[in-house]
Amino acid sequence: MSPRLAKALINGFLIGGAVIALFPLLWMVSASFMQPGEASALPPPLWSAHATMRNYQELFLRAGMGRYLLNSLLVSTAITVLSLVFNLMAGYAFAKLRFAGRDRLFKVLLGMLIIPAQVAMLPLFLMLKYMGLVNSYGGVIVPAMATAFGTFLVRQYARGIPDELMEAARIDGASELRIFVRIVMPLLKPIMVTLAIFTFLTAWNDFMWPLIVLTGQEHYTLPLGLASLSREHAQDSELMMAGSVITVLPVLVLFLALQRYYLEGLLLGSVKG
Amino acid sequence: MNRTRAAWLFLAPALLILGVFFLLPVLAAFGLSLTDYDLYALADIHNLRFIALQNYWTLLQRREFWSALGHTLYFVIVGVPLSMAASLGAALLLNSPLARCKAFFRTALFAPVVTTVVAVAVVWRYLFNTKYGLVNDTLGLMGIHPVDWLGNPHWAMPAIILFAVWKNFGYNMIIFLAGLQAVPGDLYEAARIDGASAWQQFRHITLPMLGPTLWMVAIITVSGYFQLFAEPYVMTEGGPLQSTTSVLYLMYNEGFKWWNIGSASAIAFLLFAILFAVTMLMLRMGRRGGSV
């Protein structure tokens, strides 16, 4: 095969792949600006002849999308901040502090990585019901405030911190908390950013657990609101596309802005096997 | 402050949360699966009875369970290889020295991964629409008759698999790409001097060098695909004719629709047991192949 042909083929396939990957997303954006019924014309148009913001207005004014958006922001931000703090503390302790039973405890943590979260869901629901957390933001936030995976990730990263740094501070009489805040945390910054994006995206996109624990619409996150709208308004494709745009856009923008950290974290996380 | 005490203080919040909200429920799930916890027990705990392995026994005799397991296996057995092939293909293209604008293509191919399943499932439901959907429109250009993707029990699962491959292939693509970049270039150099074709280079250098990564990715992907739920929930509601009801969907219906919590816990545990067995089997196969 001539190098020119090979080059054309390879780049051709890449363009084809990119079209397949992006087309549904672009069509979603385009259809969200269409008039009601316009997307169901034959043949289906690629863009609107009379673009309108009406679907977005409808979603925010009548369908309560603003509420879902705020709920999603609140829940995902709370989970990200809290789990970041707790995973950092635990990961650091596993990596750098000495205590009896550390290795055994770490093995338990590794074991937890292979248990699918859904196994815990039924008893967790009953437990939260007795605690009065069903159908509250707490029901989604509290169980996600620490993860075995996040702790594991921080531990792997923190092992690279030289012990001398902490020892020197201890000799100077610094408390353990001060050492953690002043010396360790700045060194963990890259993994903090990575873990934060990962956690935020996971919390934002999560569906099954919020679906179970949030029983009333007032607490719905965007995926739940969208799923319930799509059962009521299955025929209003333009409206549903606008809802999908609102759900996907924040995470897509976040990813594009912090892509490097996200992809690094993905590779770090994948060596867990 | 004593250093051991400091360690436990740092660990306490995470351990407390993981213990109370994860480990304890997992153990309790096994306990619940041995009871007949249902709507009556939910109302008054005194209605709860211990029934040993009865739930498991009943499940193994229920057609719904076997068909849900069958659908899940269908999704895993067809979906995982397709998904991995797409990931590997895309990674090979991106890794080629002839490829242009690599950063753009990488981002474009990865974009579906970060999107919300529910939102893009809604989009694909319209793309799969028999009449107005652009999937049939495109197939029509090639002279293929319209397919009733989501309304026909034979086509609903393939449609969900296509959607899942589109949504997920970018993830493993990034891992494969890193694996490919770690293959020393002089291996290919030497093979070229010996006159090896592109296919021979792929077969005898790329694949063996990628071996451990392939196994690891396969194990993680299989365990992810076994947890199929949101896709059928949004696209088909488990239908038509239950053809896309997965094991987790059955657990969800059993537990949170009919409130048969004991029986639903048994489903969750059976899924876990199957997943565990499959993972162990794959690990062993990978080890025997000398790659994990």
Automatic annotation (TrEMBL), chain A:
Q: Which GO terms describe its cellular component?
A: plasma membrane
Q: According to Swiss-Prot or TrEMBL, what is its membrane topology?
A: Multi-pass membrane protein
- Segments spanning the bilayer are 68-94, 106-128, 140-158, 179-201, 239-258
> Which residue windows are coiled coil?
none
Any one Gene Ontology BP term: transmembrane transport
User: What keywords are assigned to this protein?
Assistant: Cell membrane, Membrane, Transmembrane, Transmembrane helix, Transport
Q: Where in the cell is it found?
A: Cell membrane
Question: Does the entry feature the keyword Hydrolase, yes or no?
Answer: no
Q: Which domain of life is it from?
A: Bacteria
The answer to whether the entry has keyword Metal-binding is: no
Domain ABC transmembrane type-1 span(s) in chain numbering = 69-258
**Family the UniProt entry places it in:** Belongs to the binding-protein-dependent transport system permease family.
**What is the name attached to this protein's record?**
Carbohydrate ABC transporter permease
Native species: Dyella psychrodurans
From TrEMBL, chain B:
Keyword annotations for this protein, in alphabetical order, are: Cell membrane, Membrane, Transmembrane, Transmembrane helix, Transport
Residue span, ABC transmembrane type-1 domain: 69-282
The alphabetized list of GO BP terms reads: transmembrane transport
Supply one GO CC term from the record.
plasma membrane
Pfam families from the entry?
A: BPD_transp_1
InterPro entries attached to this UniProt entry: ABC_transporter_permease (IPR051393), MetI-like (IPR000515), MetI-like_sf (IPR035906)
Recorded superkingdom: Bacteria
Q: Where in the cell is it found?
A: Cell membrane
Membrane topology annotation: Multi-pass membrane protein
Q: Which stretches are transmembrane?
A: 73-95, 107-127, 155-183, 204-226, 258-283
Q: Output the Gene3D superfamilies linked to this UniProt entry.
A: MetI-like (1.10.3720.10)
Stated family: Belongs to the binding-protein-dependent transport system permease family.
Write down what this protein is called: Sugar ABC transporter permease
Q: What is the lineage of its organism?
A: Bacteria, Pseudomonadati, Pseudomonadota, Gammaproteobacteria, Lysobacterales
